[in-house]
Amino acid sequence: LLNQGWIVQSLSPYFSPVICMRKKDRSLRLCCDYRELNFKSVPDQHPIPRIQDMLDSLSSSSWFSVLDQGKAYHQGFLDEESHLLTAFALYEWVRIPFGLSSAPTEFQRSMEGCLSGLRDYICQPYLDDDLVHSSDFEEHVKHVQTVLQRYQQHGVKLTARKCELFKSKVRFLGKMVSEQGYTMYPAEIAPVQALREKRPATIEELRKILGFLSYYRPYIQDFSWVARLLYDLLSAPAEAAWKKPVPAVKGGPQQKKRESKLKNQGHLSSHTPLTWISNHQQIIEQLIDCLSNPLILGIQILQNHLYCTASQEGLGAVLYQRTLTPPKKNYYMHSTQLADFNITIKYCPGKSNADADGLSRMSLDMDSYMSQCTEDIHQEDANHSSTFQPMPREEIQRAQERDLVIGRVLKYKGKNQWLSKEVLQGEHRDVWTKLCVDQQGILHWKTAERDQLVLPKEYHPLVFRELHQEMGHLGVEKTLNLIRDRFYWPWMQHDVEHYLTRVYECLKKKKPNKATQALLSTIKMTYPFEMVSINFLHLETCKQGYEYVLVVMHHYTRLAQAYATTNKSDKTVADKIFNDFALKFGFLSKIHHNMGKEFENQLFPKGCTEYSSHTTPYHPQGNGQVKKFNQTLLAMLRTLTEKQKADWKSSLSKVVHAYNCTRSEATGFSLFYLLFRQSPRLPINLLFDLKVDGRRETHQDYVTDWQNRICETYKITSKTATKEAARGKAYYDRRI
């Protein structure tokens, strides 16, 4: 857009939100939310042509051509005074953008001016679509040439792949137009044809069917005569009999009963059973034939824009959620699926939208629906297990023997003798003493914490999948630390870098760091749970209306917790912090947050023993620890599949757990280890039967050892955090 001169850099004081929408060909369209601008604009009253009038004027035509403008509104120019009003981000529009309320009418006026003298005679322009029609082929060629010359004079450009030339039948404005008239698409006749199988059981169901068919009464000759037997079913025969008059006081119960009887006389209840015979079914089929066979009806998604009429209930309520604020949303909005369509929703009450309203009220055949959605699975075919079966030790031993490197070491270790100088020549002698073989003949690498399994090469892809893909596609260092805590093999770091950069290529999705503008100042904490930092992250709306993530980060250990919420009100924040986080880890001394209204309230001082601190206005870098985690969380969520992204709430806790299980560069330990004094037990531990801690202790020994080790760990953590903070500050300040 910038290279083509359609937008320019802007200094406008105005701003409108921007969103990129997918077209039908999967390319992106830049859209702006101009609702506030439209509200303050004077609407253009130029009429848009009625589709029915345009179709009626084609009765004497036999040849058709559809000319489509690919760029549509972008071919029109804005006056210079309007440039500032269309600003978005750091740019403003020079061409007419999508989203302005007056854009369709202005565009229609320009097209009618461009084709002045030709409209209604040889062509029918409707926004960016133009139908050229003629009675014979030679005349049609001249008409198409005339319209193209007029477009050339006014500088209008067409999209060749969207144009249809010299056809006897074309698609135009949702109809299939031909010499005989216009009709529905064959694939869209199916919902109408399905009414043949509908056998209404009650008066209410019959009214729905008749209401739908009656909407097209102008197209069905003698509709009332054909459907007279069906309408007779809606009314009961009136009783004519003389009875003794019953006096009643005005407003009394006798009068109300009498008025109710007179009111319902000649009418049946909606749930009254029907006696449905073959004659009635033949009438329904006759009406359906009249409706679906002649050329009268058509529904199609237009190539450039979809105008949808819907009521405020049902589908209309779901579609209208896009215009509501998050606290008002009641339905899950499938924005990822609707993103392919540039859609405009217009409210239409049910009585004015009788065809769609009638079909939506048809009772659902649950038996047929369930048969289509159900798959029979036999018990012997079900692949399930109540317990997790680890990999057999014999299989691991055979895999080590098959490995070219490990098998050679096992061979020498099995002899249980010192190696000769010829064998040790060129080898690392200190490695030999750290290798040991257990009673089952499996080779391990001895460390101070535990014996690590020497992993054969054939299991490397499995480990990378479990500790990289299933752990949120973390970077090289974090993935390497997860593997080092459990396995050993030579050249491990080289293999990890190769897999993450050449095989998975997920590092390409990482967000680059931007240039900094000020010196870095760090926040120093001296004991666990002294302070937590909180912030909100806004994501795409998923099921049940969740679209926000409340991030709570423990400043000392870097432990992170994330809570999916439907809104970011102060009550929601207080509920998650004090009824969940605080009950798990204890009440907090300090809470660090930005100056959002959801944080600046009276709820936080009640839960804090000292005070709450906040960042300076318009300076999110003051809460940098949470902001950095937000980047990591977004990068991990970005690696989910499209199906998982639509329901990201289900994967949120797993992704955060994966983050907490990795080693932090700031502390030198994993967040899980700092809390529980042991490495996390992951599925890969169960698969290879890896022990988290091989020692067997009594409760007293465990408590004593835990106290000593946790004190030592916290000392190392404080020292490492101070060292890393100084190193990070020096690196950060270098980029100013």
Automatic annotation (TrEMBL):
InterPro entries: DNA/RNA_pol_sf, Integrase_cat-core, Integrase_H2C2, Retrovirus_Pol_polyprotein, Rev_trsase/Diguanyl_cyclase, RNaseH-like_sf, RNaseH_sf, RT_dom. Its EC number is 3.1.26.4. GO terms for biological process: DNA integration. One of its GO terms (molecular function) is nucleic acid binding. Residues 524-691 form the Integrase catalytic domain. SUPFAM superfamilies: DNA/RNA polymerases (SSF56672), Ribonuclease H-like (SSF53098). It is an enzyme of class 3 (hydrolase). Residues 1-177 form the Reverse transcriptase domain. Residues 246-268 are annotated as: Disordered. It comes from the Eukaryota. It holds the Pfam family Integrase_H2C2. Belongs to the beta type-B retroviral polymerase family. HERV class-II K(HML-2) pol subfamily. This is Gypsy retrotransposon integrase-like protein 1. It comes from Latimeria chalumnae (Coelacanth).
